[in-house]
Every structure is written in structure tokens, then in C-alpha cells.
Amino acid sequence: MTTLTINGQDHQFDVPDDMPLxxxxxxxxxxxxxxxxxxxxxxGACTVHLDGQAVRSCQTLVSDAVGHRxxxxxxxxxxxxxxxxxxxxxxxxxxxxxxxxxxxxxxxAALLAGNPKPSDGDIDSAMSGNICRCGTYPRIxxxxxxxxxx
Amino acid sequence: MTRIPDPAGFRPDRRSFLTGSLALVVAASxxxxxxxxxxxxxxxxxxxxxxxxxxxxxxxxxxxxxxxGQGIWTGASMLMAEELDVGLDQVEPDFAPPDDKLYANPxxxxxxxxxxxxxxxxxxxxxxxxxxxxxxLVEAAAREWKVxxxxxxxxxGVVRHAASGRSASxxxxxxxxxxxxxxxxxxxxxxxxxxxxxxxxxxxDTRHKVDxxxxxxxxxxxxxxxxxxxxxCPVLGGKLVSVxxxxxxxxxxxxxxxxxxxAVAVVGDHYWAAKQGLDALAAKWDLGPxxxxxxxxxxxxxxxxSKGEGVVARxxxxxxxxxxxxxxxxxxxxxxxxxxxxxxxxxxCTVHVTPDGVEVWCGTQVPTRAQAAAAEATxxxxxxxxxxxxxxxxGFGRRLEWEYxxxxxxxxxQVDYPLKVVWSREEDIQHDRFRPYYYDRLSxxxxxxxxxxxxxxxxxxxxxxxxxxxxxxxxxxxxPDAVECAEETPYDLGPVRVSWVRHEPPGVxxxxxxxxxxAHNVFVVESFIDELAHAAGxxxxxxxxxxxxxxxxARAALDLAAKEAGWGTPLPANTGRGIMVxxxxxxxxxxxxxxxxxGSNIQLKRLVAAMDCGQxxxxxxxxxxxxxxxxxxxxxxxxxxxTLDEGRVEQTNFDTYQILRMNEVPPIEVHLVESSExxxxxxxxxxxxxxxxxxxxxxxASGKRLRKLPxxxxxxxxx
Lengths: 150, 719
Fold this sequence. Notes:
The complex is a heterodimer of chains A (150) and B (719).
Chain A: E1 2-6, E2 9-13, H1 21-28, E3 47-50, E4 53-56, H2 62-65, E5 69-71, H3 80-91, H4 101-114, H5 120-127, H6 137-149
Parallel strand pairs in A: 1-5
Antiparallel strand pairs in A: 1-2, 3-4, 3-5
Chain B: H1 14-18, H2 22-27, H3 32-41, E1 45-48, E2 51-53, E3 59-63, H4 72-84, E4 91-95, H5 100-103, H6 118-125, H7 127-145, E5 152-155, E6 158-161, E7 166-169, H8 170-177, E8 226-232, E9 239-242, H9 245-250, E10 254-260, E11 263-268, H10 271-281, E12 284-286, H11 295-305, E13 311-316, H12 319-324, E14 328-336, E15 348-354, E16 357-362, H13 367-378, E17 385-389, H14 403-412, E18 419-422, H15 425-430, E19 438-446, E20 452-461, H16 464-468, E21 496-502, H17 516-535, H18 540-546, H19 552-564, E22 575-584, E23 587-598, E24 601-612, H20 619-638, E25 644-645, E26 648-649, E27 668-672, H21 685-702
Parallel strand pairs in B: 3-4, 8-18, 16-17, 20-21, 24-27
Antiparallel strand pairs in B: 1-2, 2-3, 5-6, 6-7, 8-11, 9-12, 10-11, 13-21, 14-19, 15-16, 15-18, 19-20, 22-23, 23-24, 25-26
Helix pairs in contact in B: 4-6, 4-7, 7-8, 13-14, 17-21, 20-21
């Protein structure tokens, strides 16, 4: 059995060490807010926090996550940066289909937690790994700026 | 997608949405006591298929349109809330069950969400039943109070009679309203009384899209459910020969190997076990007749077919003679690639087959077709298939297909537990159904003054309509989608012929893709118009204005976009502006794109859109759709291309099927034209507009006319 600390609680899972964290979260722990988009670290839909840093859970093996704090979209609103991002997302009507937005929000929250006043270049470089097919990028950029001013 | 006649001949009309009132009408003839009892037993006040009001005041609005990001649940809720005189915060949207009789989109003739038709269909189609429901509730109060209904007012679902000081909430009137026949009609509100329509309202579907709580089809969780990952034959038309089942089942957590004629799936406790099993399976395929097919074959096939005469969609005058006698003659070939949808939510469907019937959980734009597909695959009658529709993680036409439901059901009928069948991203792209390849030939003449003397446009490509909705084909064999926005342009072009050659390439299935016919033809027409403007030595805006005298709405949109973009003002070196205008999906849109060339690299600098969509129901949502639609189109214009080699799709994931990213997207401005015309469609307009806007900008910046998508200056011939 493997112990993982997810959203502040320890959980035990009977899963292989080389299993990507994404599938533990979605298919074993039932935390489906974290999304599957590509399985190859190319789209950012599966972004979660590992000790506060944004990581792609489809590229993070269980063995890499043991002993670290894993946080998902379900609890990101409990952090100041996460709450500010969620509020800005709703205030500016960022969301369309919403499928990529868990990952976008996790990425943006990690950015703001480490860099409360990001420049346009900082935003581009932090967010360019996250694909949105609905094309919400201009609003994501504006929402990060609003959240950073909060 | 143009209007599709209903294969079954069903024509929704006012009567059809009143069908739901039949029980209440019958109840009205009973004595009062029984009427009350009957009404109470019947549950909520359900005056029609769209509105359910409970005694506790809960108002549920049944959404015939699916929500896939386009904001229609908010727009549709606003239309109904407006006429019901309730707040948007007082209503709850819910999924319509599959039912073509109750929930057909009247513009499509079936229960489908597509073709940017929803708000156009809902404008009358949802306001009217809401107005009738409001009238029934007001009349119930007026009867009870013995006052004139006209003396009652409603605010936030509370009926008031000012003179007597009486008031009653909708919830308290439910039982009374249900005991009387429904009014046959009710007037719609005067626009001066609108409280919601025309104001920017917060979306009703987004709260749980920011906290992980929203449930898409792929998020379904059921007791005992297992996960299957599938592999389809890499070449269309091939068959499964053999698999190493024992190796697959050695994987911890892998439970079963399920086979279809041209696909195989491994079932696991989770996706990872299923994937490990699938990797160990070493499936062997008979690749079938398309095993040697190349992209060059596909292009050659279109090119050869395009030499045929084709079927004429529109002919006016003698364009050949008019072009032959012109001072200047232009002709050009435009080519557009196959495109995948690449929705962020990969294809998936969950099915549980039991002795009592079939349950299906998925996101679909065509609920009745999805239901029928599950019935067919399991051999059950349609009535035994219960479909649970979901929020969709990007549709763009992909969920107008239903084959993924049939495939999931065919696997699920081999097991007795609920089975979630998930497609990997690679399967999703390689086994998508693609936007057709198009090969277009155009010619036109210019007189000595630079005026167009004649115009011909021959489209060659696959027909989605012929497969998807055969009754949508015209009697002469024209697929109206294939020539949409080619047959009718905003311009006065003089003698004109628009024709179509149907060519079905091997190796792929073609499908609707965001922007449908206009996303193809607006690119071709607006690029060629730009070529003509240049050949005539005229400014692209002035040249278009001269052709739009009979089209004031298109011309106003063009003028607004040009003005807001600073058309004609100086730009830095290697930078250019491209403009386009379209009349598509019932809306008028003009876009100016500013692009900078650095070598052969195209950098987007700015986008300015001017939209006349008639009455904007939710203006901020209109802007969001234009922004997103433009980005979707620009992605395809710059990167989108599906190619085949040895019968296999060469693109696999987001590294080989690239999507525009944050750092590549410029500021986008959307300017709305104030209008009281009926609303036009939105979701696909920006996508169609993006292609010519950027291609014309690239020409302005580089002097190179790119007639082939995706735009690639390295491969461009001079032009």
C-alpha cells in the first residue's frame, strides 16, 4: 500500500509505483475535478499542486508524489491565491466548456502564490503549457491580472 | 450546417410544445375537489416541455440545447426567465431527455445542437412557452382574487394586485394553475419592458467549472464501474486479427479483453491498468484496402475530381463569357485540409447493459441518435435505453457524431458491470471524423475600371450531409452545406456560377466541424475577393464597400471593423492588416487581423471584430463566442492539418496536432452593432472569419498569397 497526502489528508492506495498520479486521483480516489487531456504533458488539463508547485499529474508517478503535499482543484479555493483566481475567473466570465479550466486555475494559482504581481511575460511563460480549445486565453490573462491586483 | 429537414417528417410547431399540457386540460373537466387532488398528485406545474414549477417555488428549465461552452444554457434561461418574469438566479437549467417530438430544434428538425442555430430557434421557440406559463399563473391568481388579470403584475415570480394589496408566489399558484386549461397563446413582452434580454448576465453553468465540481461524461462514477481503453484498427476498413490476451491479463488490475470486428479494448480497475494491458496486447490487424493510402493520393483524388463539371448550385447570367471578355482575368485554386476536432475532453461513453435495459452516460449534441446507437449496438428497443446527457468538454461538431456511443455499448454488452470506455488522446485524434478536404477552383474577371465582370466557383469535397442527414440534400444532388457562403456571398458579383463536385476520399469519415460550410467557403471567397482588390489596384475595404451597396448590414460591419482597427494608418515594417466580412449563420461579422512576419513566422498582433448579430441576448457572451471562435479558427489556420500515410493518420497528440497557446494569442476587441433584428447565430461565426482575416493579413505583410491551409510561407508558391 502506498500513502499519499491529498488535500491535507493521508490516503492509502493499492496502486503500482509507476502509475501516474492523474489516474490515482481520478479513477481510484474519485477526484474527477482533475482532468485527463493528453496523457503526455502537452496540455496542462491535469495540473495539480505538489508542495505548492504546479505539476502535470499525468507525468508525475506515484513514487514521485509520496511524501509530498498534493493539492487539487477541489481544495484550491482554500488558499488565498486559489480563491482570488476562482473569483476573477467568475467575475470576468473566463469559462466556456470548462474542461481545461481546472488545470488553468491550478497553474494560475501556483503562479500567483509564487509571484503575486506577474508581468505579461511571466503570465505567458507560466500559462503557455495549458491548452484551451474554447480560446479563453484573453480572459485568462485578464483574470490573472485582476486576481493579482486583489 | 444548413437547415436539415426531418427524416421522419416531424414539424415542430406551437402545438407540439403544448402537448405536455394535455393531462392538465383533461383534469380541468373534473369536479373541483378531484381537480385539486389530481393537480397535487401530478407534481410540478408543467405547462409545456420546457418549464417545471414546483410548489416550493423551484423553477426548472429543461434545456433542449446542450451546453458545450457556448453559453446557450444562459441564453436560453434568460429568454424564458424574461417572459416568466423571474430572475436568472431563480431558475435551474436541466438536461432534456432524448425526445425528438418535444425537443427538436425547429431549424434542424431534430433534437440536435449545432449550426449556430440555438438562439435563433429559441428566440420565439422558448419565449412563447414561457409567456404562456406566466399567463396561466397570473390568470390563476386573478381567478382566485376575482380581479382582472390585466390588473396584476409580476416581479421575481410573485404575482401582485396593487389595488387589493394581494400577492402570491408562483409556487403557491402551481396547484391552481394546473386545474385550468392552458391559455392557447400569450403576447411576448415589449422590448422596452425587458429586464434581462440585452444585458450581460453571469453564466448559469460556470460556478462548478471553477471548483472541480462540474461533471462531464468522462467523470461519471458508478458502483462497480470499470474502465476500458480501446484501440481501433489503425487503418479505416481494416479488421482485428489476433491479440495476446494472456499478456494483457497478466497486468495487475486488468480484468478482460473485449473485441469488436475492428477494435479491441482492455478493461481495468483504472485507466492505467487498462493502458498497460492494451500495450501488452500486441494487437494484430488486417489493415484492409486502405493500407497503402497516402496523402498525395487523397489530394490527387480531389484534384482529378475537380476537373469534372459538377452540379450547379447557382447560376446567373453567363459568367464564362463575362470573364472571357474581361480586361483582366484571375483564376486560383484553394485547398483546405482535413481537420480533427481535438476537444479537450477525449471521446468517452459509459454504458451499463442489464437484463432490464441499457443505461448510457455521455455528453452528446444528438441525444436521440446516441440513444438509438446504444439500442442498435445492444439489440434493445430504444425505449429500453436510458440516456444521461452531460456537460460537454468541447463539442465543435465532434459530439454531433454518435459512433463512440455505439462502440461503447458494443463493448459493454459483453460484461455485466457499468463500463466507461475512454479514448486516449491518440485514439481521439487518429480516429476522429474529420472536416472534409476541399479543393476549390475560382475564376473572375475585372473590367478596365477594376469592377468584377463575372465569377465562378467550383467546390470539390466530401458531403457530410449525404451521410449525416440525407434528406438535407437538394433534389439536384447539391449538398447545401458544401456551398454555403459560396452560393450566396454578401456581394453583388454580376454573372455568377457556383458548382459542386462530390468526391468521397477513401480512408476517412468526414464530419461537421465548427464553422461547417462557411469555415471553408468564407476563407475561399474572402481570399479571392482580396486577390481581386489587389489586381484592381484598390484598397481591400473600398473594393468590398463597392460590392456591398445592396447589403447595408454587411457594409456597416465592415466599416466599423475598419474604423476600430485604424484601417489605413501606418504600421511597422513587415506588418500588415487583413480584412474580411461575412454573412453567415444569420449574423454579419467583419474582422481585421494585424500580423507581423518575422521570416516565415507569422505573429498575430491584434484582432478587431465588428459583429451585427441582431439583438444580442447576452452581450458579454456574444463577445466571448467571437473571441473563442476566432482563436479556434486561427489555430486551424496556422496549424490544423490531418494527413494520412499508409492509411494511418499521422498526427497523434498535441505535439503533432498543435493548438494555439496563450503566448501566441493577441489582444482581441469585439465591437457589437446595436440592433433590434432577431438574433443571429454566434458560436461558429468567429471561426469562419478567422481564416481569411489572417490569410489576408499575411498577404498584406508579406506580399504572398497563401491559397492552402494551414498557412505556411515556407511551402508557398509565389503569388
